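Quick question: what would this complex look like in 3D?
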Amino acid sequence: MRLTCPHCGERDLREFAARGSAVVLSRPSAGASAEEWADYLHIRDNPAGEARDLFYHTPCGLWIEVTRSTITHAVIAARPVREAKP
Amino acid sequence: MAELIARTPAHADLPQPVEIGRTRIAEVVLGPVTWIAPFDGQEKAVTAALRAAAGVAFPKPGQVTRKGSVRALSVGPGQALLIGATVTPDGAATTDQSAAWCALSLSGEDACAVLARLTPLDLRPSAFALHRTARTMVGHMTASLTRTSENTYEIIVFRSMAHTLVHDLTRAMRHVAVRAAL
């Protein structure tokens, strides 16, 4: 698989560390219930289709949010996490 | 400034250049190195300050800006290493990183074949042209790789990785040489 680092351009997967679902960017608000926190921490969708995942580009240090298809393995988009909206 | 660490980073592992097969590695003494990271919206001002003091612009991603023996190497989002001069422009976070990096130059006809064993980077001239630089992996290490001539690459890693870099490179050089001799 090849991913596009927004800073470095298209690179091999070996340069990246997979860091799980991008759902961790949507942190519950301070007053959230225990149930919401349990969802946030433990419950993950398993979509057939478009999924958003976090990757860390080890050499340049950029966290990126990758939109990809779990059906075709196509990589649709990648953007720096600092620009991602929760 | 006093030079407190008198020995070069690769001194113990590479006291002199080594030639194996059709490749050669030699240590590059970087001299003063300053890490520069402009604050938000300050890149133009930093470029102006660098131009005035050292004749180089703040590099764009993958770019090396050069003037005489001074160069500025892009090393990450909004970050560059200024090598060969000391400038600490306003509007940027700066750190003196002289003696913190180990630089080796790998040259020769098989240099690309040697690197291909160690890095996932696309080294074809169309993808990695002369005087382009890239943050990538060399073996297990993160490194800055720069093409300094058609068959010469400069590899910069943390000083603490000097031993591993020399080991990985000489090993790959031996392997390429052995295959070429078959």
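Answer marked as accepted. The beta strands of chain A are 2-5, 9-12, 16-21, 50-57, 62-69, 75-80.
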